[in-house]
Amino acid sequence: MTAKSSPLFLGIDTGGTYTDAVLWSEAGGANGKVLAKAKALTTRHDLVVGISGAVDAVLQKAATDPAAIKLVSMSTTLATNALVEGQGGRVALVMIGFSEGDLARDGLKAALGTDPVVFCPGGHDVHGNAAKLDLSGLEAALPELGASVSGFAVCAYFATRNPAHELSARNLIRGITGLPVTASHELSAKLGGPRRALTTLLNARLISMIDRLVAATEGFLAARGIAAPLMVVRGDGALVSAAFARQRPIETILSGPAASLVGARHMTGLDNAVVSDIGGTTTDVAVLDRGRPRLDPEGATVGGFRTMVEAVAMRTFGLGGDSEVTLEDGALNPRILLGPRRLVPLALAGMMHGEAVTVELERQIRAANPSRMDGRLAVRTGVPERLAAGLTGAEAKLYELIGLTPLPVDRLLTSNAQNATLNRLVSRGLVHVAGFTPSDAAHVLGKQANWDAATARLGAELFARKRDGRGQAIAATPEAISERVLTTLTRLSAEVILETAFAEDGLDGAATVAHALVQRAVDAHPGIARLSVALDRPVIGLGASAPLHYAGLPPLVGHDCLVPEDTDVANALGAVVGQVRVSAEARVSQPQEGLFRVASGETVRDFLDEAAAIAAAETDVRAIAAGRARDAGTDSAEIEIASEFRVSTVEGQRMFIEAHVVAVASGRPRIAV
Known about the structure:
6-stranded mixed beta sheet, alpha/beta, 24% strand, globular, 21 helices
């Protein structure tokens, strides 16, 4: 079968800075063949612009009929980036059976921020027995909440053992407000109410963002005559249908990195490697072991929050080509600091807005003394106005001043307090801040040339004027500061890769002496004790900027660094070579001797016989997994069932405590005929 006659697969990756597209065919060798690839800027205000730019370029390069595309698969870092940057819609959290003290656990209060929370009596015990439910307080609050939030998150005490109270609250909220509602039992079957509530809260925040992404993609495909199923990569590397992802967007955190692991394995054939994917906003590091990425059994940690989402065991760092460049405060010889916040590179802002940017930067350069606000501009992201609901008076006033043309921060803000207000608008995803980044440094040095190098140089000149502890400029020329920034990015990349290796070996690098040792080894710090560190496997460098930033990596990590030919579209390629994989779980408990309670899906049933209860649990999870597999986009799922028992022995007699039954369904996604 030739590449032309073989079904074509379109992979799309919507990243924080770029949207990538790749056209792939199963024909053309053991690993198939990349027929064409392209990039376009991600346009957050209207995602279809970036998607169409990348996909149209691919179709033109391949000179192919769009109707020949039989499957479209997409990965995205939008959810990951939103959590790292603290962005997302304003949502209301409904806690049933919990107290206000529970907010202090598992980072829930920090994640909630200023979003509203409603406490209701109710919930269940460990065996699914109900307390009295009272939703009158929630019902009274819904008219006002419905006008100020984008969605709701509902978590009830022991909802994984009986979801009845979550279902009641969900139905009430939908009936009165019509807004999206996420119930915690839909996302996880694990115990741990506050962390489950955290996961549900983050899911609710991400719904509007992922919904816009899917809608934009579906609309574009229809306009181009591509009548193919649309799949989305989950955080564990599996594929699910777009409709499935819309309801559970939290599962797309680490989607892009998971796809990159699949792509890295596909491109290099390496079974054992450290994979480091550098993008505009984040660097994502994971380990390939015996050909498979490891999953994190405790749930993915992103943006400092430990969720209950099963995903690749990956560490995400706020380090990328578009990371904010700042200077260490109060030091005699201040270090260059990068991230974790993403800025719009000045080179990009200059390309998009021209003199509106350059005139202000030139004005700041003419000033006698440097200012902390030099080289910073604010601009609206262009998201729908309804997402600006719930702003405080100060936020709304500042938001009105900011338009779609960048404004210099030194003229926009009149007090230090307003800087915090601006940061809150950025966190809500309503405003972008443009400033000096490693991407600008690369433009200054001629190592990147896709945006406006002249604007980047103005930004570098402003940053070079900043003062050290002696009152001297930190660099003599824009080129000198740019070299320092790129060197810092490579050194920090080595640090995060080695920290990940330490973590995989059982050491939390950021919280132990290992972190300090890594820094000393990477810096070749002179001392009585000479330190060196080396990986036992090569690094696979992914991302469009990997050839630039990882060129100096091998001596820092003590091993080779491979950058594959198609590294710039690894995520998009990984999106089309994966499989659908979903699971379903049931619990069998014994609330009293001789009574066996099965909690599966949204049903709770009692049996008088252990064997009958286990058989029913297996039947339930098989049916639920099969249904989820169909919803997730496969018609050919193979289902495997595993059971784990907790028992004790009392005076020689076996005593049943609990059973956990899991069904996993997997198969290739359905394609258009």
